Fold:
Amino acid sequence: MTKVQVKKVSSNEEMTLFVRFPFSLYRGCEQFVPDLNRDVYDTFNPKKNSALTIAKVQPFLAWQNGEVVGRIAGIINQNANKKWGTKNVRFGFIDFIDDLDVSRALIEAVEKWGAEQGMERIQGPMGITDFDKEGMLVEDFEREGMMTEIYNYPYYPEHMKALGFEKEADWLHIRVAVPAEVPAKYARVAALSGEMFGLHVVKYNSTQLLGEKGHEVFRLMNKAYEPLFGFTAFTENQINDFLKQYVPIIDTELIPCVVNEDDELVAAAVTIPSLSKAMKKVNGHLLPLGWWHIMRALKWRHEDTVQLLLIAVRPDLQGMGVNALIFNDLIPVFNRKGFRYAETGPQLEDNVKELSQWKPLGPEKIKRRRCWCKEIGK
Structure:
């Protein structure tokens, strides 16, 4: 068999191969939800991604017999290493055929690249920022993926074990059926929390979210998520990027914010309609009609599932029932818009506060995913 060769991506043509490789690897896989080509290109473009001012990235392609058989990106998030006192090189965007020689060659390429820059440990799959996809799927491969999460074949985690990786952290997703009415516990706790702390829900419009209110939401997230595994605060430039990219297309009814009597933001939730089916139709291309499928799913003809991307509560009010105000607002909205199910993004398995808030809804824990790690060279 021809030896596997791994090369750095160094041209536009090679970047196109990097972007498009998953489309051939997962052809015919019903569970796979593709990225937009443009989003992946922009991730590696310093003019489009301000996170590249605090991180180094290097994409690689694996070749065999003249064909691309795998891809991976090396990532050094300097802010994360400084915050957590680590010398980690991350790997992300990892995809490969079921050949251990290929996966080994990809990992070794990132290890070598990281070691050249003083890194001592490799971990992943992780993103450049905490808004990027992270965590390799290790269970529930038969479930349809989401636009915001990684899907991978069952053989991926077997390769990681064979290559000497160990579990560093696991995330779970929570899936619930949207109840016809707000559960009594949520309604009661929402009323009590509102009275005790003088809280109420507000909905900012797009203009407000593009301005200072949007920045307040991200600053709240920085405080709320500060102790969580791998998290690093979003910079003002990153916040601007995210707001400009997403606010114009979101439904602000699905973004409840909680403020106190002094109009200070103390909690916020970001939810969006599932775009899984729309993204499959788009198949990576916004033009000529890809944008129509996405906007249709976002604005007019929703899928039956809504994604709960995040809930952030100011640290001093966590565990005080503030989340109930958010659920008390969202459940009627979900019903009005025809959503039958709600599914969270990845939640750390040891984040008891986060996971316990779903109990009144009879939660189902699904799609376990993992961050793997090992010392470089072992």
Q: What stands out?
A: The first strand starts at residue 5 and ends at 8. Residues 282 and 290 are 5 Å apart (CA to CA). The chain has two domains: 5-169, 179-339. The domain at 179-339 is CATH 3.40.630.30 (Aminopeptidase).
